[in-house]
Design goal:
The protein has helices spanning 6-19, 36-41, 55-68, 94-107, 130-142, 172-191, and strands at 73-78, 81-84, 87-90, 111-116, 147-149, 194-202, 223-227, 232-239, 245-251, 261-267, 271-274, 281-283, 291-295, 300-306. By secondary structure, it is of the alpha+beta class.
């Protein structure tokens, strides 16, 4: 919806929640790359194009939703995976588009949900691989996302496969998504012990415009030093109870380049637990006091630091 529809929809949704003792109505907001007309009048106002990002206007759009709707979440869909001249490319405002709505969620004490890209519908888009499902998921987790959703539109053209076929048969993408979501489920109990504080980046450059975002975390005391030649996204978390801290670290090299990130971290804490591919692993520093992590292309890891 656009903001012109908010008042009417909020009345319906708020009444529904009250009359059904808390059942959730579902509202999915436009992404940041929607143009100004759509943010006001709704998705039907014009075709969505990737040329009209306005983070300030989009923040107002998200804030207005949080203020008017009583639902405990705010949700959008962001589809970053493109084809360009036969090469895989990434939507240039990707992290900022996550960051803006996630910040609105934090400021209004709402859970952040997002529908990640699960299929292609035009030649400029691509159906994600397992690596790309994992990369999207950990990017979202880095900004505190608590709900990862998939549209399951049936693929009706062989060149644009979806999670399921028109006949309801599971496609390769279904199994790729399921593999990643099973990993995320294994991390879930640990992850939900923490509150997201925002995110920071390492090694962002002109080659990784999608990693730029506003108002990053300036200082996260548990991470004293980062050594890595590849770009990284780091989500910062504080325990809901106690002094423990946690973070995500995501390999943000352009997926086309297939670069592995070798990360070394000096951390302030008595014990470190990492969750690679959903498996709990106790980490010990090397002789220089550094924790080493290896991130395959598109990989992310959730790490807990006991203080």
């Amino acid at each position: 919806p656009g903001t012109d529809q908010y008042a009417e929809l909020a009345k319906i949704c708020n009444t529904y929640s009250r009359e059904t003792e808390g059942k959730l109505p579902y509202i999915n907001l436009l992404p940041m790359y929607a143009n100004a007309a759509q943010l006001k009048y709704g998705a039907h106002a014009a075709a969505i194009e990737y040329y009209d990002p306005d983070p300030a206007l989009y923040k107002k759009y998200c804030d207005a939703f949080c203020q008017m709707f009583e639902v405990p979440y705010i949700c959008t869909d962001i589809y970053p995976l493109n084809w360009s001249q036969g090469r895989r490319t990434t939507y240039k405002e990707y992290c900022e588009s996550i960051n803006v709505i996630a910040r609105s969620a934090r400021e209004h004490s709402k859970a952040f949900w997002c529908c990640i890209q699960t299929f292609a519908w035009t030649p400029s888009k691509r159906t994600p691989t397992e690596t790309e499902f994992r990369w999207q998921s950990y990017c979202m987790l880095s900004f505190g996302c608590k709900g990862l959703l998939c549209w399951t539109y049936a693929g009706y053209k062989p060149e644009f496969p979806s999670l399921v076929s028109m006949q309801g048969k599971r496609q390769n993408a279904w199994y790729d998504a399921a593999t990643v979501f099973k990993e995320i489920a294994l991390v879930s109990d640990a992850f939900t012990r923490y509150t997201n504080l925002g995110a920071m980046s390492h090694g962002c450059s002109d080659d990784t415009p999608y990693l730029r975002f506003s108002q990053p975390v300036e200082h996260f005391s548990v991470i004293e030093r980062i050594e890595c030649e590849q770009p990284l996204l780091i989500g910062c978390f504080a325990a809901k109870e106690g002094e423990d801290r946690a973070f995500t670290v995501v390999n943000m090299s352009e997926l086309e380049t297939l670069q592995t990130a070798h990360v070394k971290l000096r951390l302030r804490g008595s014990r470190v637990v990492a969750w690679p591919r959903g498996q709990r692993v106790a980490c010990k520093p090397d002789d220089n006091g550094l924790i080493a992590l290896t991130l395959a292309p598109g990989e992310g890891i959730f790490v807990e630091v006991v203080r």
